[in-house]
Amino acid sequence: MADKAFITPNVLKWARESARMTEETAAAKVSVPIDKLKDWEAGTSQPTIRQAQTLAKAYKRPFALFFLPDIPRDFQPLQDFRKSGSKALTTSSIFIIREIQQKQAWISDVNSENNEEKLSFVGRFTIDNNPQKVAQDILSTLKINPASYKSENPIKEWIDAAETNGIFISRTSFIHTRLKLDSEELQGFAIADPYAPFVFINSDNWNAPQLFTLVHELAHIWIAETGISNEVEPELKQKDKLHPVELFCNEVAANALMPKEIVLSFDTASFQSSKEVFKAARQLGVSSFALLVRALNLGIISTSAYQKLKREADIDFAEYLKKEAIKKAKLRKKEKPGGPNYYLLQSNRNSRLFTQTVLDAFRGGFIEPTLASNLLNVQINKFQKLEAQLYR
Question: Lower CB density within 10 Å: C or N end of the chain?
Fold first, then answer.
């Protein structure tokens, strides 16, 4: 008979509930009836060691945690700045938030213990400041000029600039192949810590919305407001549903990505049709929708012109998505067996800066191999290939 795991029942139940996992889903993970799982959580029977280990893996918790005498102190939930009526956070969102919190807590402790200087831009402003002034400070600090990006992919320049200045940027769209992140549920979040600010971006979206989300989350860092965002880059009709912090950070992002002087410099032809709007928006790395809202707010176009161009842009965007779907399908056929580059996905998910920091600590003998592997979610024998990816 298999050995029983004499776990603490209320800890087992807490681990499932904190993972936002239903009883049905958890029971299916270990191939038992729901009543059996309920018995384990009530303490009337115990799972086997293997079953408990399977649940620990499913809940993304250490197996030893199940044997604690009581529910442990966990990471505090991030403040929810999402619009009213948003979907409840599900398992995938909870897991990525917890994962980033673990990484951030570790690197913050390391930097604090090493007496690293606090980053002066974290909390430099508040929501009472002028969004334009905050945007200018972000551009100045990161040394970015939206009028002269060096490539057609500005988000990479922004990420490189942020990480050069000590801000860790994580991007992914999934926990694993069967657990995807929903951009309607979670677009991004920021942890505004003076020793190790961390930003997460859901890469489920295309690059323009991701860039807007990134700069929106940087605004959270600049005003020291840790929290979760969704519906970033809103339409005008959604304003009344947004938290004041979100409205402020959207304004900062709009001012940073589409500075007034640049938008005003566009000739009138840029707003004659949705095709011209798209060309202008592409120069700035933003969406047509973001540029149209900005132009309306600056008085460049009227409300009726905005509505007309918005309708055209909606049609164009639907066509664009069809073309992108065909393009992605062709790319998938050409991909080598094994799918996308595993090491690129992992370095993006961890943050390239975080990946390099952990690898340096591991190579220098400052942290144990097991800790390095857990922090990076990569096996030790794959470290060399992971590091090689950072220099491509």
Answer: N
